Amino acid sequence: MQPFRSHTGVAVPLLKDDINTDQVAPVQAMRDLKPDYKKLLFMRARAEDPDFVLNQPQFGNPGILVTGQNFGAGSSREAAVWGMLANNIRVIVARSFADIYRENCLQNGLLPVVLGAPDADAFIARVVAANGSAPFTVDLETQTINGPGGPDIAFDFPAADRMRLLEGLDDIGMTLKHTDEIVSWEKRMAANQPWLQTASRS
Amino acid sequence: MPETLFEKIWDAHLVAQRADGRELIYIDRHVLHELHAPHAFETLEKQHRPVRRPDLTFSMQDHTVATMPGRDDHTNPSGAAFVKAMREGSRRNGIKVFDLGDPEQGISHVVAPELGMVLPGATHAVPDSHASTVGGLGALAFGCGTTELGHILATQVIAIKRPKKMLIRLEGRLAPHVTAKDVALRIIADIGLSGARGHVVEYAGNAARAMPIEQRMTLCNLNVEMGGRSGFVAPDDAAFQWIAGRPYAPKGAMWDCALALWRTLKTDDGAEFDREIVLNCTGLEPQITWGTDPSQVLGISGRVPDPRGTSDQSKRAAMESALSYMGLQPGMGLAGLPVNRVFIGSCTNARLPDLQTAADVVRGRRVAEGVVAMVVPGSSTVKREAEAAGLDRVFRDAGFFWGESGCSMCAGGNGDRGEPGERIVSTTNRNFENRQGPKTRTHLVSPATAAASAIAGRIADVRQLGKA
Fold first, then answer.
1. At A163, which helix (H) or strand (E)?
2. pLDDT recorded at residue A31
3. Does B457 touch chain A (CB under 8 A)?
4. What's the whole-model pTM score?
5. Which helix (H) or strand (E) holds B297?
6. Which of B210, B258, B288, B451 is the most buried (most CB within 10 A)?
7. B453-465: b or e for each residue (b if 16 or more CB lie within 10 Å)?
8. What is the rounded distance in angstroms from the CA atom of residue A84 to the CA atom of residue A67?
9. Residue from the list A76, A81, A182 with its beta carbon closest to the beta carbon of B143
């Protein structure tokens, strides 16, 4: 996985709650095993709504998406993360994330930042005021956001997830260090609840 | 210390704690589908990593498959590459595929329990957000993305942070024609789209207990629509009887051992939850969504709400946008609105009793002129059983299309979809904009309400059908 240390780019305000992955990555855009992930991102809104934020010229080269509560609700489709990366959006700042979407972000080096109410309000106001004219930087090492219109904003991030992103750690590799424990769990379960360790027609 | 059932299942499956603090939870059954698994196969093969337990893993062809009778790989041309990659990837990795033409093919969340692959107290993972459907049997299931799916293939564990615990107690008695679907929609309306975010939900109480297993599956299926990480009903005798004799279920002495353990799968008295909610189901009427997310719900006799009545700016904007998209005005009733299309199917509501309920409404009647009505069974087994019971004749005689099993119009991944502007009454799980086709207007309902609406040609209160 590509490590994440910091990312600088234009912050795009998409100020709605509950944006779902059908909106981010429409299933109609996934008709191919290798779709164009750059085009797929918010494909319908980009095609149909000239005022959609990503259609506005100042946001033509986005870097950070700024949004509301429960971002990424709905389907578990990971294309909704791959589409962000294909457009160089490597940070999403939200009031909250849907569980599966947040996990998918962490698996791909896309930084899901959650800001509480006062910080989120202040940051959104600055993003709206900047209107794409100057970039923001989100730094995971210092856990701060800086950019036009005010002082640095600190954000919380779980230490464990932070390390994995900073180092770009191989998730499967980390788990395979526990292979001995997996094997002994399987042996124990094969003795105690054998019906769980076999899935055959009997 | 008293424990919840969630904690008992979790602790029994806890393999280790990883250096980053995540817990490794063993996955007893892993079920894949063709929309996402091919990418994971490719990634693992590039990394030269084998599938750890192909014998505990199963592949389904469900998301992209055509529903036309006599279908093959190419009936839905855009699905052909997925179906082929799934078939070949599964074979290379020694995973059994429930392929097109297999008499047991179907939607993963329907097939896995119906064949007895998923068992009470077992853990289950699917690269699909509706994985928790199998919670109806008392299994703990996690939906995941494609990279996580690869992780589970390579390790047979999921690396996850321990979720919080929520109890939803369903009290009272459901009235006739009111089902788990109506209850679930009411819960989502009450607690919101992210009301269960970060939580595993245990559904309990008299009304949950009184639900047949298939309805418990519908209840647990919709858990993700309020953001829940997983959801289940503690297994009881009804669940054990439902499982007994299914092809992959334990038999003989092993069944006896399993049953003895399964009887211990309950939350202890006095165990604590992070959050508890009670819903009295007595007096609940059939529910229907009016808007563009599953929390925008009305009783069938209710009136569309006025956004001006809410002070939450974001909610008001969402309501206004939904009203406009759905072509509705505040204060109007939904019952009586003309309907273009009716879909009965999906992992939410396409098990045999769902089809029986719908057929009971349809029997001896005709689909209204101009309405396109479809029934797509949840699995090929359900289809066969329905045909043995004559349900296909009931539907076809009434003018319904009777299809081959798959996810079909739920997300339209197989090309089944409505036309722009159509009003669709659907037994599925998401009424998001454009989900069932560009500019389609979806109303989520139970199978009974869907069937009644197909007959009436209008959104109908199933309790009134035949009374007029």
1. helix A159-167
2. 86
3. no
4. 0.97
5. strand B297-299
6. B451
7. bbbbbbbbbbbeb
8. 13
9. A76
